[in-house]
Structure formats: C-alpha cells, structure tokens
Amino acid sequence: MSTASETRVRSKAVRGAAGKAERPGRDGRSGRERQPWLPWVFLAPTIVGMGIFTVLPIIASVALAFFRWDIISAPSFVGFDNFAEVVQDPTVRVSFLNTILFVVVAVALQLGLALGLAIMVQEKLPAWLRVFFRSAFFFPLILSAASVSIFMRYLFNEQFGVVNWLLSLVGIPAVPWLTTPGGSAAVVILVYVWQNFGFSFLLFIGGLASIPVETYEAASLDGATGWRKHLHVTLPLLSPTTLVASVMAIINALQVFDQPFVLTRGGPGDSTRTAVMVIFESAFQRLEFGQASAIGVILTLIIMAITAAQFRLSKRFVFYQ
Amino acid sequence: MTTTTERTAGLNAAGRVVRRRKRDWSVAGRIVLLSIAAVLVLGPVLWTLSTSLRPPAESFQLPPSFLPLDPDFVSYGQVFKQLNIIGLVINSALVTGLIAVGQMITAALAGYAFANLKFRGRGALFSVVLATMMVPAQVTIVPVFMLIRGVGLSDTLLALILPAIPTAFGTFLMRQYFLGLPADLAEAAAIDGASPWRTFRSVYAPLAMPGLSIVGILAFNFHWNEFFRPLIMTISEQNFTLPLGLVSLQGNLGTGSISVVLAGVVLSMIPALVVFMFGQRALRDGLTAGTGK
C-alpha cells in the first residue's frame, strides 16, 4: 500500500515538473492552440441531436400553441384562442384538477412510505435483511408501468381479483375498484405509489446515510429517544433530501400517463383522466395539435414554477449543516 | 461508600438489561413492519409469475396461489401463438440496444468536452443542455411526431431510436464522471505525444467505463419499459415494442385467458430482472445521480 502511494506521489511530482517545463500553452488539456474545432466534434452528435429533437420541438411547441392545425389543412394563426378554449374546456379542467389531486395524494403517500421505511431499514438490522428489504423496495422501479398496470388490473378485478378476495377474508364486501370514479382513482394512486415509492426510498437512504452518527449520540446523551430523536434530529437534517425527493416526485407525478391509460383509460367518465392524457387525446385522437401544444405549455409552466419554487424554498427553509 | 457504588452498579446493570430487551422488541417490530411492506411489494409479482404458470382455465382461481408449486407451461406456448412475441422482443431489443449504445457514445463525447476541453461558451451551452431536462417529453412529442412524419419515418423503429439518442442526463452524468478523473492524466498523455482524440479514446474513455455503464443501464431500463412514445410513434403491429404489444393483447383477450397475458408480462420482465441482478448498484447510482445526495 505505502509503496504504491509513494510511487504515485513521486510520479505526480515528476510529471508536474516535466509538464511545467514542456507544456506549450496555458493548458495542456485543451489542445485549443492546435485544434480549436476539436471540442465541437465531440459535442456535435449531442448538440445537433438535441437541437433537432429537443430545442426545436420546444420552440415549435410554444409556437404551435398559437395556431390551429390538424395536419391536413394549412395552419392558421389564432392568437390566444387555444389557451382560452383549453381553459374553458370541461374535460381539460377536470383532467388538470384530477392531476393536481393525484399529485397531492400520491406524492404524500409515496414520501411518507419511503421515509418511514428508509428510517426503519437504516436502523439496527441484520445486514442480510437490510440488503433484502432494500432490493425488494427498489424492485418495482425496474418494471414497466404498462406491465405493472396490466397485472394490477387483474388483481383489482371486482369479482375475481385477489384484492377483493383478501378484503372478503376480513369481512369487507367487494369494492367496485375499476367501475366507480373513487375506486378507479384509488387504484391509479395505489398502483403508481406501489411502483414509485422505491425511488424516494433510495433518495432517503442516501440522505440518512449522510447524517453523522455523532449527531445521534449527542441527541441520545441529551435524552432524546425513539421517535423524538427522529423528529428533532433526523427530519431537520434530512430536509435537503426531502426537498429534492418531493420536487422530483411532484414533477414525475404531474406527468402520469401509463398507469391511468392502461388501468382505466381515464374513466369511468373523466374521473381518472390526467393532463398528459388530454395532451395525447387532443393531439393524436382529435388532431387538434394547437390545443395539445397549449395544454403542454401550461403543464411545462407549472413544472418550471415548481422547480423555481424549489430553489426559493431551499434557501429559506432547508437546514444545511 | 462501597454500598452506594455497588447499588448504583446494580441499578446500571438492570437499566441496561431493560434497555436491551426494549431494543430487541423494537428490532422485531421493525422487521415485522418491513416484512409486511415487502410482501405487499413482492406479492403481486409472485402472483403474476404463479398465475402465468397455471392452465388458462384456472387463471382466476381463488384462493390465489403465490408460489408456482405445480407449473404448467401451456400459457407460455399460447402467448407465442396469440402474439408475435418474438417480433416484439426483437423490436424492443433493437430499439433499446441502439438507444443505449447511442447514448453511451454521444454522452461520453459531449461529457468529455464539457469536462476536459476548453471552448467558448462552454458554461452557457452546458446550462442549455441542463435546462432541456426540465421540459417533459410529453410536451415536445407533438413537434417531434410531426418532424418524424415530415421526413417519412413515421411508423418505423428509427422514429423511436433517433430522438432518444441525444441525452441531457447522460451528458450531465458523464461530465461529472470525467471531472472526477485526475486531470494530470491528460498532461501525461500530451507529454507522451498523444493527440487530444487519442487521449480521450485510450486514456479517459476506458477509465470512464463504470460511468458509461450507468448511462447504458439507465437507458436500457427506461426504454425497455417505455410505453408513451411507442404508443404514438408506431401504428402497425409489426413495429410495436413489448409493453405496447402486451397492452394490446390484454385489450384483445377476454378475462378467460389472463394467464396468457401474464405469461407475456413475465417474459418481458426477464431482461429487466437480469439487469436488476447484475446492475442494481449502477442503476441505483444512476437514478439518484444529480440529486445532490
């Protein structure tokens, strides 16, 4: 060990000296003197690709929001008409309302579960059990939301589903999960949280691991035990992680599509229709591309506002060590 | 004097015993709660596996079984008959594989430029790259769809592959990775007479393989499971990817043959399972990268 590190130090010194003596320009790393175009060769695939498939579409999407276009006839400029129509459209309004309700409930459940389980996993526990639980909670993340929704639809079947069978064992009559507005909303939320809480769980595990053990020792010397310890030590010290985890969870939940599409197709009625579902439907089923873009612009503005709020909040409320 | 010390020592010992017993109970309680959570998480997957291994007629049998004690592979035979599953697998593999390789190459190049090469506007350009991550793909899908349609690529696999190759997140990840590698390697390579390209190719790229594998595994996991873009970009069944094919199979079949659908679901999970077993660490690191943990 010691010899290896000594050699490394020595060779570093030699190299440093040689570098100083021989380096032609200011910076040996850049190669700027000889080939100023070189960085652009490295960047070209990404920059050109993102220009075509991300930046231009963003601009086009904003522009398109001010046009009426069904692909077949020529686009016509309509000013803010699309926004006005979209804001008044009852389906769009219900869908945004659904999305906001979904985000509030799903994110609260997701973060609560993730935090509770992360604290329990990180405390004293046999090592093999810790590994097992961590892998288990992480596992749903690797599955496709579409596949998960496929088997969950069977599990929540009113007559033959396992969920209602389990409920019947404790004397609860069959719940009409997928045929009532409330039941459908509950299934979409449960299935979404089932698959995604593992992501917040991972973030919390990382955050908990970075809290120094001495802090807990100091707290227990002061007489803090059990949940009081977590209330007064863990939660404040975890607040940067909590903020990141909640913002990421909110942004992801705002874009929910796969689960409601496969589980309920937005129904019954519009009860589980989400913002992204109406973008999909107005663009690719009704061919109202201008309106779809207007809805997309509104959704993006909401997401950007939340991201901006994150930065504000992190300055004011988050406790940094 | 001696009696007091003895008494306090005795008290201390008793206190310790009480506390340890309390701790044992709290550990047991936590294990119970965590086990319930684990059963709720793994139960549905086990049910899917065990139901796919039952004859179609017994799909909805209650009480359900969660362990495939008496496996029956009829449904697996059926899924090959009722669904062009080999075609779906080939499509998914092509799309996912080419996206993953494409992302690894482009992200390595761009990440290296942002980390190790100096050029005008580097900071500004990198900010633009990061900013694009804020805009959800569902929002840009309409113009992307029109562009793809305009160049005559609609309803092809290329329509899924090309737009997914440039990756802001991968570029960010690789920049961080290259920044973590020692800078004097480039100096040493320059002294040895290596060109900047050679320095990247033979010195930095091999060292960045762990970072690159994270980019590749994340791309694989995301695009293997992707549903939204294939739903929009492909029309004919021969261009479907696995998730899309399975959802349409569920739509076509009645509830009588759910074990067939579930057999397809299980088959589609196998590659993800392999990644889970061998690349869990990389996947975890990648998913939480850039969250400032």
What would you say this structure looks like, in words?
Chain A is built from 13 helices and 2 strands, in the order ααββααααααααααα. Chain A has about 325 residues and is mostly helical. In chain A, strand 1 (about 65-70) and strand 2 form a beta hairpin. Chain A is globular and about 75 Å long. The relative contact order of chain A is 0.11. The model of chain A is unreliable at about 1-30 (pLDDT under 50). By secondary structure, chain B is mainly α. Chain B has 2 domains: about 1-75, no CATH class; about 85-250, Orthogonal Bundle (MetI-like fold). Chain B is built from 13 helices and no strands. Chain B has helices at about 1-50, 75-80, 85-115, 120-130, 135-150, 160, 170-180, 185-190, 195-205, 210-225, 230-235, 240-250, 260-290. The radius of gyration of chain B is 27 Å and the shape is globular. The chains are: A mainly alpha (about 325), B mainly alpha (about 290). Chain B: It comes from Arthrobacter cupressi. Chain B: Belongs to the binding-protein-dependent transport system permease family. Chain B: Its main location: membrane.
Global Rg of chain A: 27 Å
Number of strands of chain A: 2
Oligomer: heterodimer
Helical content of chain B stands at over 70%
Strand content of chain A: under 5%
CATH domain class name of the largest domain in chain A: Mainly Alpha
CATH class of the largest domain in chain B: Mainly Alpha
How far apart the termini of chain B lie comes to 54 Å
Distance between the termini of chain A: 34 Å
Beta-strand share of residues of chain B:
under 5%
Sheet of most strands of chain B: none
By DSSP (H or I, 4+ residues per run), the number of helices of chain B equals 13
Subcellular location (chain B): Cell membrane
GO cellular component, one term (chain B): plasma membrane
Family (chain B): Belongs to the binding-protein-dependent transport system permease family.
Main location (chain B): membrane
